[in-house]
């Protein structure tokens, strides 16, 4: 079995040589950090910054996003979140530019409502006849539809909503 391991002597450009049977993630991390430091030091001189290319348009359309969840004292994490950098591309909505969708759904005594909502609110939002020209009204429709359908689902499964 051939896997990839760092060996700068064999291929100085990419520093990977697929010859050894074991993968060494520590070496990979060390070489990556070392290269990152080299690049940062190189561009720390402001004169060198002008040689950088502009950021790709994908970075401008998909901004960096991070999420953090903290379980607190409960046994399980009951909250959910959704990050969709381009809702319009996901649902093939044209002529309205991009729209980001970020949702945080609180579990309150169980994960079921948060899980259902995190999977459906954005779908019901774009299905609303008011989206995208009246997003406030479309969100109200989406919340109502999500709530109604979740209650129906719980009733069918004989569970408490």
TrEMBL record:
It holds the Pfam family PP2C. One of its GO terms (molecular function) is protein serine/threonine phosphatase activity. It comes from the Eukaryota. Residues 64-161 form the PPM-type phosphatase domain. PANTHER family: PROTEIN PHOSPHATASE 2C (PTHR13832), SD03870P (PTHR13832:SF818). This is PPM-type phosphatase domain-containing protein. The lineage of its organism: Eukaryota, Metazoa, Ecdysozoa, Arthropoda, Hexapoda.
């Amino acid at each position: 079995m051939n896997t990839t391991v760092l060996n700068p002597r064999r291929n100085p450009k990419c520093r990977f040589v697929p010859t050894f049977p074991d993968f060494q993630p520590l070496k990979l991390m060390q070489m990556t950090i070392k290269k990152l430091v080299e690049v940062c030091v190189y561009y720390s001189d402001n004169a060198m910054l002008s040689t950088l290319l502009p950021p790709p348009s994908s970075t401008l359309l998909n901004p960096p996003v991070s999420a953090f969840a903290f379980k607190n004292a409960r046994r399980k994490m009951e909250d959910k979140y959704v990050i969709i950098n381009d809702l319009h591309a996901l649902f093939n909505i044209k002529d309205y530019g991009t729209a980001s969708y970020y949702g945080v759904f609180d579990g309150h005594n169980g994960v079921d409502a948060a899980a259902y909502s995190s999977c459906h609110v954005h779908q019901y939002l774009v299905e609303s006849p008011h989206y995208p020209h009246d997003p406030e009204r479309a969100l109200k429709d989406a919340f109502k539809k999500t709530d109604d359908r979740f209650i129906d689902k719980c009733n069918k499964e004989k569970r408490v909503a």
